[in-house]
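Tutorial, part two.
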Amino acid sequence: MIKIVVDCFGGDHSPEANVAGSVNALSRFDDLYLILTGDEETIKKCLEGKEYDKSRLEIVHAPEVVGVDEKPTDVIRLKKESSMMKAIKLLRTEDDIAGMVSVGSTGALVSAAMLRVGRLKGVMRPAFCPILPTMNGGIVGVCDSGANVDITPLHLVQFAIMASLYLENVYNVQKPRVALLNIGVEEEKGDELRKKAFRLLKETKEINFVGNMESRDLLSGKYDVVVCDGFSGNVLVKSTEGACLEMLKKLKKDISSRLINKIGALLMLKMFKEEKAFMNYQNYGGSVLLGTSKVVIKGHGSSKEVAIEKCIEQAYKMELSEMSPKIESCMEQFEDIIIEDLITK
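Running the prediction step on this input gives:
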């Protein structure tokens, strides 16, 4: 049985979406066991009328909620009865719990995961890796998308290794093509950080490095993994998502503007529905925090039940594919390189 704890509060559509997504996930995976943290009475009300295996779901009462504007340190010290911190505590103390899902405050989740759950041996810094769709029907992972702003070239190498293992083992992408986010595709492009990172990535035999990538090619299907610092990665992901959403709005507005457009849209209705589903980030789950000792998934704050279900599926597949031991095994050989890098700074 694979146990996952779900933080049921903190999102725009919580707790209804969190509970509904959890019930959907239970119906799909017979060996899945879920623990829902949050106000018990509220969660029970959300469960009313839903059919699910009661032997595979339990509720842990947590009356407090973490706000998006709260300082991570305050959350860890003062909000021990919150749904997020109760989930973190369960993840840390219960050996049989494989991972957790939360759509709450990113800063609080990252800080709590680092301080309470900890890193895998050999991992310098855990990194977020969200999944986006590509134009050829595939997917691309962006690592890092917000956990680490100030990094070194060695961090980027580790991000590339962890993300490659993730795409290969969870999404069955063979020899993932790894690219470095840069301002041009030429090897000499970028600042000193990216120039050194390019050389290191090129020499790393554990990955399939294919060179630099410009941001406009993120969804092209030419790459499976894109490595970057957390600031650039966050801007890249949100800009791409925002552009796709605005294009859909523009298309909808143009269709409504003329009768002939409406008639044409009716004939293409199936295609429009497929394109909308393709561009909807809710269908791709959340961001895995690669490198923590147990699985941590951060969903969008605006996640609805489909996205919650996908986040739980990600955590389930991470545990099923034994991702943590694989990452730790691969990182052990880099300890000497990391120590040498720290000494020479």
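Residues 1-123+291-321 form a domain with the Isopropylmalate Dehydrogenase fold (CATH 3.40.718.10). In part three we will examine how such features are distributed along the chain.
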